[in-house]
Amino acid sequence: MNTILITLCVSFGLAFILGVLLGFFKKIFYVPVDPTVEKIREVLPGANCGACGYPGCDGFANAVAAGTAPVEGCAAGGTETAKAVGQIMGVTADAVNNVVVLACQGSKEHAQPRGMYNGVKTCRGAKIAVNGTKLCQFGCIGLGDCVSVCHFKAISMGQNGIPHIDYSKCTGCGMCVKECPQNLLKKVPSNQKGAIALCSNTSMNKPVLLKQCKVACIKCAKCEKVCTKQAITLINGLPSVDYAKCDSCGDCVSNCPVHVLILTENLIKISE
User: Fold this and answer.
1) C-alpha angle 108/268/49, rounded to 5°?
2) C-alpha to C-alpha distances, 116 to 58, 106, 133, 212, 257, nearest whole angstrom
3) CA-to-CA distance for 73 and 79, rounded, in angstroms?
4) What percentage of the chain's residues is helix, strand, coil (to nearest 5)?
5) Residues 216, 243, 53, 148, CA torsion sign
6) Which of 80, 259, 270, 260 is nearest to 192 (CA)?
7) Cα 200 from Cα 145, distance rounded (Å)
8) What is the C-alpha separation between 33 and 25, in angstroms, rounded?
9) Closest Cα partner for 223 from 248, 198, 257, 265?
């Protein structure tokens, strides 16, 4: 019994001494927090996704308050967050809400596999090991690196072997864009209208294009020829659209023999 009482007394004594010391050191080493940083942190979404280029929301808030980061730098927060941060900093924010588009349609049905891959089950690993899992060296590898880095669960791997994007969840943060070793994910404004090419194969070896993928751009330039607004030019063999000229007429979409082009507004379907 005495042993128990002594143990309790010693424990309480140590706890008291440690509490006093912690309070003492906290007061000595206290670093005052900038109230501006706290205000900015309160209006951020708290995703800590790192898309802003800083270590989480705390890092971004500190950078904005210090004037080293733009008020519209939080991609996950979009326009509303940019306006809120701008109001705190006393500046006007002009941010654009973005989403991500997969510039590839190389599903299991369309793209020929290179063979059985038995290496590290990541897109980057397959890219380094065997230059991808498909005959088309430009196509989606399909091992889901983009899925693993999406903090908003906006990307999932479809049964057809390529990522599917839920535009009701996508914030356009761009983490998947950075992660894709094939550079197939592109950030576009969520209100963008006009044609967009869903192929990234820049090879000019035309005879083998459709053998590798049934929906590969065959470089026929028909889209460029039928565009009355001269909004399309081929760059590295792929259609590039000038959205200042494109009026979403859809002529290029309907005339593309391999259905590479689609109107962005039809692709991006955001749930209200």
Assistant:
1) 85
2) 44, 17, 8, 16, 31
3) 10
4) 35, 10, 50
5) negative
6) 270
7) 18
8) 17
9) 257
Q: Is the CB of residue 72 less than 8 Å from the CB of residue 94?
A: yes
The pair of three-digit structure tokens given for residue 229, joined into one six-digit string: 């607004």
Q: Per-residue confidence of the chain (272 residues) as pLDDT tens digits?
A: 667 777 777 777 788 788 777 776 666 665 666 788 888 899 998 888 888 888 889 999 988 888 888 888 888 888 888 889 988 888 887 767 889 999 999 999 999 999 889 999 999 999 999 999 999 999 999 999 999 999 999 999 999 999 999 999 998 889 999 999 999 999 999 999 999 999 999 999 988 999 999 999 999 999 999 999 999 999 999 999 999 999 999 999 999 999 999 999 999 975 44
Closest CA to 100 of 43, 46, 49: 49
pTM for the predicted model, two decimal places: 0.78
Longest dimension (CA), the chain: 97
How far apart CA 232 and CA 235 sit, in angstroms, is 9
| Cα 42 to the center of its chain, rounded Å | 23
Tokens of 111: 């793209």
**Angle at which helices 78-89 and 35-43 cross, to 10°:** 160
In DSSP notation, 167-221 reads: TTT-----HHHHH-TT--EEEEETT--SEEE--------HHHHHHHBTT------
150 vs 178: CA distance, rounded Å: 11
